[in-house]
Amino acid sequence: MVGRGFWTDGGFDPSASLEVLTRSRTHRVLWFTLWSSTVATLVTLALGLPLTFVLYRLRVPGRSAARAFVLMPFVLPTVVVGVAFRTLLTPSGPLGFLHLDGTAAAIIAAMVFFNLAVVVRTVGVLWENLDPRREQAAAALGASPWQVLRTVTLPALAPAIVASASIVFLFCATAFGLVLTLGGLRYATVETEIYLLTTQFLDLRAAAALSVLQLLVVTGLLYAAHVTRSRREHAVERADVRSTLRPARRTDLAAVSTAALALAFVATPIAALVVGSLRVGDGWGLDHYRALDGHEAGSTAALLVPVTEALSNSWRVAVDATTLAMVLGCLVAVLVSRRGRSRAERRGLAVLDGVFMLPLGVSAVTLGFGFLITLDRPPLDLRTSPLLVPIAQAMVALPLVVRTLTPVLRSIDPRQREAAESLGASPWRVLRTVDLPVVWRPLLAATGFAFAVSLGEFGATSFLARPEAPTMPVLIYELVSRPGADNYGMALAASVVLGLVTVVIMGLVERLRLGTAGAF
After folding, report:
1. What is the distance between the alpha carbons of residues 199 and 473, in angstroms, rounded to a whole number?
2. How many CB atoms lie within 10 A of CB 173?
3. Mapping DSSP to helix (H, G, I), strand (E, B) and coil, where does residue 272 land?
4. Is the link from the previous residue into 132 a cis peptide, with omega within 30 of 0?
5. In CATH, what number is assigned to the domain containing residue 305?
6. Are 516 and 240 in contact (CB under 8 A)?
7. How would you write 330-385 as a 3-class SS string?
8. Alpha carbon distance 241, 249 (integer Å)
9. 3: Cβ–Cβ under 8 A, 6 or more apart, which residues?
10. Does any domain span residue 270?
11. Which letter does DSSP use for residue 11 in this model?
12. pLDDT 10s digits, 149-190
């Protein structure tokens, strides 16, 4: 796509493309993208860290169900999340008295809602394995709970916090569906601007310029995040998960209250989806759910395929994409988590780590369109291949797998590997006896994360999915974009089905992950 934008008639001509950077509208788009993503990231961390503490360190009822529930927003198509917030914030909605409809605050709230799971999962897989004896020793020496948090806990969690913050920022900066639905014509980000330039105006030169600028900013952000993580990463002492859990105390009241607020914040838009899906005219019923099979009168005109077929398509694509993302992600995480012996080797690993994070900051529109114009000729003509969508979704999920596993692998004391090697253990046995017991549970968490991302991925899939084989997010978008209360109701019903499937899957993954805790 960049090549087609910067090369004209076989020659390099960047002047026409770079002209877009001088437009006043572009300046407004860049500024709004920067400050809205920053504010949303800070708010997400403020809500996510106390929630992570409660769900991963305290023995509270319903902990596993709450973990799966927090992930539900992350799997919903961003367009659906935007519609849910519009339903809440319109003047006639439950929260209409706040007068937030069509404001930047609504966009930021939707970003926080969507990305809260990233902080909880990324930080949680490391936090639940930390040995609590350091915190207990600091408290026994007279440190207050705040001092323990500031001097012991946060330094140990810093790599995971920085990793999750960088992911959240990138997701906020590329929140295509949210901004498109909630921002209207008043607010736009680089993501939506690239989309408009590509699909509405066919201005590939301007889209290429913004894509290059986006890549440069993402690269700089990833480098800064890498430097910060490298300065704070160190080996940590670990303990069995069950030994790290403790009952809530009076000193945990602030964290528990914030966690309850975060769960209520997540539940409110989801409740709006459920209530809207059950609303039929002036009454209540399951008509919208019955129409999803494509056999109700008038429903076949709106549905591309029955929802059961779309869900089956999403399932098959997600399994393939998750398998590819996990294989590649594990290899990349093992490689980039190693500490280079020379300065050049360390720089090479840092560059490699950043390269595999780039899909998080690239416009999904750019990614999907790029696949179409790149893999369109032999020997890799995949335009009609069913492999194209899983490949694109695997590239979207790959950075999440790497970011989930890398902090855990880097926290392993290298002396443990050296001791095993000195005793004659082969590299495979070192991996099996030293790394695998630590990584096993985060590995299951990363698998569930990748599967959830694949189920809900919309941006690139909307370009690549074949009309006769749509995924659930594509089907939901088709319903949302069509006029009529029945189509809107079916879109909400399909969103509830997709969210329910995801919660069940993540609940099973969570139970399996906790059930295998004692096996190692």
Report:
1. 19
2. 26
3. helix
4. no
5. 1.10.3720.10
6. no
7. HHHHHHHCCCCCCHHHHHHHHHHHHHCCHHHHCCHHHHHHHHHHHCEECCEECCCC
8. 19
9. none
10. no
11. E
12. 888 888 888 888 888 898 899 888 888 778 888 876 678 888
What is residue 520's predicted lDDT score, i.e. its pLDDT? 29
- Which DSSP string do the residues of 406-442 spell out, in sequence order? HHHHHTS-HHHHHHHHHTT--HHHHIIIIIHHHHHHH
Q: Residue 264 in contact with residue 75, Cβ under 8 Å? A: no
Domain that holds residue 340: 2-7+18-248+284-519
- Residue that has been written with the tokens 């930080």 in this structure: 123
pLDDT value of residue 47: 94
Q: How many residues does the chain have?
A: 520
Distance CA 64, CA 258 (A): 18
State how far the Cα of 94 lies from the Cα of 268, in Å rounded to an integer: 10
How many folded domains does the chain comprise? 1
List beta partners, residue 112.
none
Task: Share the mean pLDDT of the chain.
Answer: 81
Q: Within 10 Å of residue 102's Cβ, how many Cβ atoms?
A: 17
Which stretches of the chain drop beneath a pLDDT of 70? 16, 184-185, 226, 229-244, 294-304, 360-361, 363, 365, 510-520
Q: How far is Cα 106 from Cα 346, in angstroms, rounded to an integer? A: 42
The Cα 314–Cα 318 span in angstroms is 6
